[in-house]
Amino acid sequence: xxxxxxxxxxxxxxxxxxxxxxxxxxxxxxxxxxxxxxxxxxxxxxxxxxxxxxxxxxxxxxxxxxxxxxxxxxxxxxx
Length: 79
Prior knowledge:
- This protein is mainly alpha-helical.
- The protein has two helices and no strands.
- It has helices at residues 16-40, 46-78.
- 73% of the residues lie in helices and 0% in strands.
């Protein structure tokens, strides 16, 4: 399992575009942690496989949302 995350940095996004990119990056990191945790499990068997599948599905949804936020930020930045 992962360690407790470090406290958030004091830097705050300066505008909506930066905020969207920041949230996108956070979702990508979350997906990476979910996948790493799933890979690190010593638990075996059908229930473990189902749990890993659910973690992978959640990680995939995080990446999908991160992609959408990044696209929104890029569109907002162009206007």
